[in-house]
Fold:
Amino acid sequence: MHLLTLKDWTTEQIKDVIDKSLEIKRKPDEYENILESKSLAMIFQKTSTRTRVSFEVAMTQLGGHAVFLDWRATNFALADIRDETQYLSRNVDCIMARLLRHADLRAMAEASRVPVINGCCEKYHPCQAISDLVTIKEEKNVLQGLKLVYIGVHNNVCNSLIEGCTRMGVNITTVTPIVNDQSVDKELIGKAERTGLYRTTLDVKKAVQDSDIIYTDTWVDMEFFLNPKFKEEKEKRIRLMKPYQVNSELLKDSDALIMHDMPIHRGYEMSTDVIENPNSIIYEQSENRLHSARGILLKLLKKP
Ligand code: CP
Structure:
């Protein structure tokens, strides 16, 4: 069993991992050493703070060990991904990979003898969506029937959030004036539409009116943020997205919880004051990456 996208998991499996993550957070002592002598390889083609730290600390807390690999410093950069994965999966019990292309994750999973976790590709960020649902359930006690608005660029985080919310009975409205070409997944959107829980609009004021949760993310994906070749596109995005910034004016009649998967670009997708608004659960949300990483690792590695 892998975790490449939530599309591959049953609704029951998603629900189980959310509940298990919350249980591990409540009773960490019961899960110490449960993955003793297990190893996780973590390979990154892109930058990361939370995904790297949460999975490494999760393995330590569960009694196992994590090995960090920077893609550029390994022979993955030179050789066929299938051969390198064949080797890697004979030395570790699980692989977590943040790769540029989902197709490479699929190739890795096909070649691997052990579970492969998608640590964020151009299309999906399933670990983030699981953690977000853990955070929402922790705050609200329920998921079914809640209303979440995602405001930003339609990207990998947005895709996984749509999949996760519609599976768990959360109504999700997206306000996404820009769609990242590389994240397009028509099948995912079609399926979400058929649940009746997903809709999209550009009327941001109306969308936030009766929402329980307001969620935003970066306007520019991490691999392009500091890329000089993306400068013009970045400026265009800032111009187009500025009217959709999550700020005090937008939130003036709202008591919704505020979420952001981080890293935050202060003054762009979110104004600085909103980050520390009493309704902001952004830092709790980021903390929960650790608890949900433990839930995901147990789901994939612990034999019943
Ligand atoms: N949200 C998230 O995945 O954070 P990192 O990019 O820092 O891992």
User: Anything to note?
Assistant: The pocket of phosphoric acid mono(formamide)ester is lined by residues 48-51, 120, 128, 261-263 (CB under 6 Å). The chain has a mean pLDDT of 96. The first strand starts at residue 39 and ends at 44.
